[in-house]
Amino acid sequence: MVQGMSKNKNKSKIRNENEKELEITHNENETVQNDEEKSEAESAVNQQDETTASDERFNQLNDSYLRLLAEFDNFKKRTQKEKTEIYTNAAADILEAILPVLDTVSRAVNLDPQNEGIALIKKQLDDVLSAIGVEEIPAIGEQFSPELHNAVMHIDDESRGSNIIVEEFAKGYKYKNKVIRHSMVKVAN
Fold first, then answer.
1. Where are the domains of the chain?
2. Is 141 exposed, middle or buried (0-12, 13-18, 19+ CB in 10 A)?
3. Domain spanning 134-188, CATH class
């Protein structure tokens, strides 16, 4: 019986040791499992941080792209506008140099209305200027406008309205809404 008890004790000891080993193994498994769960959670957080950082970087790059695109579009518009202005100014400068010739031809026609050659030259000059967009500034009978007219004389005439142009000494011209030369006029009242 002592021997039976001793065997039971040994079995009990072995069982206790096995249970302790199982418990230790179980605890180790739980620790490993907890470590894996923590690692997975950290990995998920890291992935989320990377995704957030990637999204922020994407938004920054997209914003930069859109700004650059808008800036380029504005540059194209500004360049086109400057090009048009340069062309208009250059054409206006050339036309301004030609206007004294037109004035001389007009005076020649007024001095000798019978001379058809000079009249044809004036008509041809007028047609060419009209074709490229040069317009005469209306003057006689119009309200005086300092943007379009240059008053060189002033008369008091009660039969005329206030600031009405009564005589034109030199014609004024516009090219694409730019005044090339102001009309030289006499203004009443």
1. 134-188
2. exposed
3. mainly beta
Handedness of CA 106, 107, 108, 112 (dihedral sign): positive
- Read off the pLDDT of residues 68-122 as tens digits, 9 standing for 90 and up: 999 999 999 999 999 999 999 999 999 999 999 999 999 999 999 999 999 999 9
Q: Which residues contact 163 (CB under 8 A, 6 or more apart)?
A: 143, 144, 187, 188, 189
Q: What token pair was written down for 103?
A: 């004035």
State the SS3 of 77-140: HHHHHHHHHHHHHHHHHHHHHHHHHHHHHHHHHHHCCCCHHHHHHHHHHHHHHHHCCEEEECCC
Amino acid at 161: G
Q: pTM for the full model?
A: 0.61
